[in-house]
Amino acid sequence: MTKKEKCEYIVTELERLYPETPIPLDHTDSYTLLIAVLLSAQCTDKRVNLITPILFKRANNPFDMIKLSVDEIREIIRPCGLSPRKSQAIFTLSEMLIEKYGGEVPESFEALEELPGVGHKTASVVMSQAFGVPAFPVDTHIHRLLTRWGITNGKNVIQTEKDAKRLFAEELWNKLHLQIIFYGREYSPARSPKYDQDYITVKIGTKKAIAELK
């Protein structure tokens, strides 16, 4: 298969499997999504969704968040891991949102990436899922699968994002990145990929990729 044929097959299969793509992280607006995505670093979405209702009951906007101390935030989010760093980031970015944007989450990659604890991937998730701006956030599932499927060389997530944006139509990005994540979790988990389940790899993957599944 050529890369074009692979991409067409991937899009067709993922659309068949996941015609609907609910956002995995529970939220009510752009601010709560931003906080949830920040908390999801090195933490499962399932665990984040257990913790955010506790946090958001106390503070679901930057004005209420800065009324909490960093220590109070840290105690609430401790189960998500990296709580010292994340709690400081949540407090400081909330201050910045108030000071620079009147408490609103800015709708640009550049402004988001200036916030503490917000990298390019987090900014991409917020831009795509909160504001509907075309983006292709690359997480470990996407990086692993697009490498395995021969869509990118797997050099790094930056290259993976560039290749994905080059090969897939822009109007597909926001939905497709979620579809790939859902597929990875269901058919090809990182810890125990199964040859008989990850059928897209069997169909289009390289011999090396298939061998790694056995």
Description:
By secondary structure, the chain is an all-alpha fold. The protein has 2 domains: 3-21 and 136-213, Helix-hairpin-Helix base-excision DNA repair enzymes (C-terminal) (Endonuclease Iii, domain 2, Orthogonal Bundle), CATH 1.10.1670.10; 30-129, Hypothetical protein, domain 2 (Endonuclease III, domain 1, Orthogonal Bundle). The protein is 62% helix and 0% strand. Helix 5 packs across helix 6 and helix 9 (140-148) crosses helix 10 (157-167). The protein starts with a helix and ends with a helix.
What keyword list fits this structure?
single chain; 214 residues; mainly alpha; Endonuclease Iii, domain 2; Endonuclease III, domain 1; 2 domains; 62% helix; 0% strand
Spell out the CATH superfamily of the largest domain.
Hypothetical protein, domain 2
At CATH level 2, the architecture of the largest domain is Orthogonal Bundle
Residues in β-strands, percent = under 5%
* Terminal-residue CA separation: 22 Å
Helical segment count: 13
Radius of gyration from the alpha-carbon trace, in angstroms: 18 Å
CATH class identity of the largest domain: Mainly Alpha
CATH topology label of the largest domain = Endonuclease III, domain 1
Q: How many DSSP-defined strands?
A: 0
Main structural class: mainly alpha
Uncertain runs are none
Listing every helix as H and every strand as E from the N terminus to the C terminus, the arrangement reads HHHHHHHHHHHHH
Mean pLDDT: 92
Query: Largest beta sheet, briefly?
Result: none
